[in-house]
Amino acid sequence: MCTHLTILLCAIILAACSGPKETPLPRELDKIERIKPAIEKLTPEERELVAGYIIRHTVGAKLGGLFGGKENLGIPEGMTLGKAIEEQRKFKADAAIEEAKQHAVKAKLQGEREAAMKPMREAITVTLVSKKIKAERSSNGIIWNENLEVIFGYKNNTDKDIAGVKGYISIRDLFGDEISGFLISNYNTIKAGQTVNWMDSRSVRFTIGNNNDRKLAELEDDKLKVVWDPRMIIFKDGTSLTVPDE
Q1: 122-242 sits in which CATH class?
Q2: Is 74 exposed, middle or buried (0-12, 13-18, 19+ CB in 10 A)?
Q3: Cβ distance 225 to 95 under 8 Å?
Q4: Which burial class, exposed, middle or buried, applies to 165 when counting CB atoms under 10 A from its CB (0-12, 13-18, 19+)?
Q5: Portion of the chain with pLDDT greater than 70, in percent
Q6: pLDDT of 85-109, one tens digit each?
Q7: How far is residue 20's CA from residue 12's CA, in Å, rounded to a whole number?
Q8: Can you tell me the distance from the alpha carbon of 176 to that of 180, in angstroms, rounded to the nearest whole number?
């Protein structure tokens, strides 16, 4: 009698100890619904971790295989809700560490780029000299295209002649939003202390990208800001200033 009672008590204790986290996780996605009652007993954070684990080892694994990556074998045999929670928690922690490292590297590179740009911006001052829309007409006077024509001035603030300049000019409004941008390569020699002009022209009817050249042409000069992002300055004596690659 005592033996039967002991076995019964042990069974009750074991049943009490085996909470929802001991529930086996089905390997097939279509059988997950069967363990829904156990999942509902988990905390909101644990449920989110389980969902992340399941997606990562099923849908995510399949997608990885489709795009040339190594396809995961899916949910391992013998996986329980508790193990899935812990593995997904570790996965998220490792991902957060990796993301922090990438952010640190990016911040370091951005700092190096800004430090390199400072003397380059001091070496050359870029100004917007003029901007206008110029129509192109057919022989019978019909306008078939319109171009934005811009002229930028480059002043050499150094005591050395500059052989060439390469960079990006961003034209922004009062709120700091970019209206238009121009990649430039200026091969004109800029004498020490002198200024040269660089002109560009492009269609406002057959435009590519997100630039708003017509708005640029129409806005008053005091409502625009020129942001000069130099990439390379080559001096006549063979020396140069460059910005590290992104």
Answers
A1: mainly beta
A2: middle
A3: no
A4: buried
A5: 85
A6: 999 999 999 999 999 999 998 888 8
A7: 15
A8: 12
